[in-house]
Each structure stands twice: as structure tokens, then as C-alpha cells.
Write a structure and sequence with these properties.
- This protein is mainly α.
- The protein has one domain (6-171): Alpha Horseshoe (Serine Threonine Protein Phosphatase 5, Tetratricopeptide repeat), CATH 1.25.40.
- Helix content is 68%, strand content 6%.
- The chain is built from 7 helices and 3 strands; from the N terminus they run E-E-E-H-H-H-H-H-H-H.
- The protein has helices spanning 32-51, 57-77, 80-96, 100-116, 121-138, 141-156, 161-171, and strands at 6-8, 11-14, 17-19.
- A 3-stranded antiparallel beta sheet has the order 1-2-3, with no helix packed on it.
- Helix 3 packs parallel to helix 5 and helix 4 packs antiparallel against helix 5.
- The chain is globular.
Length: 177
């Protein structure tokens, strides 16, 4: 049995512990949609956790698999926003692994979406940081420089300190131009 936790945006609270993830409640039904949502969130959390720390080769593969698994589950039941956030994760993971062509394709698609919609400050910063990362891996110096600069500005504009700290972890993975 999974212990009950109190949810907060972007993290969970358990007595005396704050983590930077939201742990989904395990479904209590056989409803496929509930299970898709559960696994989408589980794999999303795992891939993001792996993306911001030193990894072994095995963990690189786990991160890639988790990002794709999350996207698969969000594609089955998620909203357009869920699917674009999954694409954002795919762009970052592919960039981290040096997969320039796919990282760029994912980054361009998610960037178009987030810049054309009403997007929170933290997500704009993520968008520019990950777009810069994909451009760096692809060797596109001008786009890397432009998106990196936009990411720095957006990072400074994040109102919430905790949101800024979380985005900073991803931004720290992006090589400077």
C-alpha cells in the first residue's frame, strides 16, 4: 500500500520530506484511463529526475525509455498541453543524449506550441532552455545563442523561487554559447 501524501504543485509533502515531484496515486480501478494517467506521471517524474543529475549508461537508457513511455501514455489520454509537455521532455532527453535530429524536431514543435499559447513564466523558461539545448547539440550556433539568451531572461522573470530553482536545474544542463 502506498502511503497517503498531501499534494502540492510540482512536489509532494510527506511528514518532514519535500520532494520535487508529484507522485500519482495508484489507481484503485481497472479503468484504462486511470492507469494511463498513473504511468504517464510516473515515467514523466522518473525521466525528469534522471535528466538533472549525473547518470550511468544504464540510467541514460532508462531516462530515454521513461520519456518515451510517458509520451505514449499522455498520447493515449492526455490533453494537448499534456502531449506538448511530454514533447518538451523528449526534446530535453534527446538533447542530453546527443540525438540532435530528434531533439531539434521535438524542440521546434513544443516551442511553437508554448510560444503561441498562454504559458506560465516557468514553462516559457523551460521552453527556451530546452530549445537552446537542442540547438547546441545540433551545432546551430545562432539559434543556440538566441534561445540561451531568451532562457536567461525568462529564468530571471520567474516569480516563484521554487519554480525558478526547478527550471535552473534543467538550464544548468545547457552548455553556454
Amino acid at each position: 500500500m502506498v502511503p497517503a501524501v498531501t499534494r502540492t504543485y510540482g512536489r509532494i509533502r510527506d511528514p518532514g520530506v519535500i520532494l520535487n515531484i508529484v507522485m500519482p496515486d495508484m489507481p484503485e480501478t481497472n479503468d484504462p484511463e486511470s492507469w494511463h494517467r498513473y504511468f504517464a506521471m510516473e515515467y514523466n517524474n522518473r525521466a525528469w529526475d534522471l535528466s538533472v543529475r549525473a547518470r550511468t549508461a544504464g540510467e541514460d537508457l532508462e531516462m530515454l525509455d521513461a520519456a518515451h513511455a510517458s509520451a505514449l501514455h499522455w498520447n493515449a489520454i492526455g490533453t494537448e498541453l499534456n502531449r506538448m509537455r511530454a514533447m518538451m521532455l523528449l526534446a530535453e532527453v534527446h538533447a542530453l543524449l546527443g540525438l540532435a535530429e530528434s531533439a531539434t524536431a521535438y524542440a521546434e514543435q513544443m516551442r511553437s506550441y508554448f510560444l503561441e499559447h498562454d504559458t506560465p513564466d516557468w514553462e516559457i523558461a523551460f521552453t527556451h532552455a530546452i530549445h537552446a539545448h537542442a540547438a547546441c547539440v545540433a551545432g546551430d550556433i545562432a539559434i543556440h545563442r538566441d534561445s540561451h539568451s531568451k532562457a536567461l531572461l525568462a529564468l530571471g522573470a520567474i516569480a516563484d523561487d521554487e519554480d525558478r530553482r526547478i527550471v535552473q536545474q534543467t538550464f544548468d544542463q545547457v552548455p553556454p554559447p
